Amino acid sequence: MSALRTGAPAVTGLELDAAARGAVVAAAEAQRGRAGALLPVLQAVQAALGWVPAAAVPLVAEALNLSRAEVHGVLTFYHDFRRQPPAPHTLRLCRAEACQAVGAAALAAHAQQRLGCGFGGRSADGRFALEAVYCLGNCACGPALEFDGRLQSLASPLTLDALLAEAGS
Ligand code: FES
What CA–CA distance (Å, rounded) separates 141 from 143? Predict the structure, then answer.
C-alpha cells in the first residue's frame, strides 16, 4: 500500500493535497511524450492514491496535452478505475458461468441482503464495497469470491457471514 494511502491528509474529489498533487504530476511526467500515455498515467495515479480523484483530471490533461473531456472519457470508460476512495473492505463475487452453475446467484442475493446494497455499491456505513467479477480463475471450486484480496473457494452464505463477521460486520 502506498504511503499516500496511509496516514495522508484527506484527498477530496475536488481538491488534492500537496502529496497527492505531487503523485499525479509525477505519474504524468513519467509518461509525457509517450504514445498511449493516458492509461499508464491513470493506473499510476490509482496505484499511488488508491483511486483517481476528479481533481487529477485537469492535471493529467495539461501534462499530456489532452482535453479534460478525453481524460474524463477514459477514466469513466474503464470500470477498474475507482473514482471514489476505496472502502476499507471489498467483497468481489464471481458472477461468471461456472460459478453461476453452482450457486453464485444465491450467494449474490445473500451478499446484497447482508450489505444492503447492489453490485457497485457500498454498505450503508461505507465500510464494505460489493463488486461483481467475471471469473477469478477458480472455476473448478466455485462459487468463488475474493474478500480483501483473499480468494475463497466453495463459498456459501455461511462462509460469507464468517468473513463479514471477521471484518466486524
Ligand atoms: S467462473 Fe467463477 S472463478 Fe471462474
Answer: 6
Q: Is the CB of 117 under 6 A from ligand 1?
A: no
- Residue 160 burial by CB count (10 A; 0-12/13-18/19+): exposed, middle or buried? buried
Q: Which of 67, 90, 78 is nearest to 45 (CA)?
A: 78
Confidence of residue 5 (pLDDT cuts 50, 70, 90): very low
Whether the pLDDT of residue 169 is over 90: the answer is no
Which atom of ligand 1 is nearest to 98's Cα? Answer: 1
Contacts of 72 (CB under 8 A, 6+ apart): 57
Q: Are 57 and 113 in contact (CB under 8 A)?
A: no
Pocket test for ligand 1, best of 92, 94, 146, 151 (most atoms within 8 A of CB): 94
- Its pTM surpasses 0.85: no
The response to whether residue 102 sits with its C-beta less than 6 Å from ligand 1 reads no
Distance 138 CA to ligand 1 centre (A): 5
Report pLDDT for 12: 55
User: What is the CB-side half-sphere exposure of residue 139 using CA atoms within 13 A?
Assistant: 7
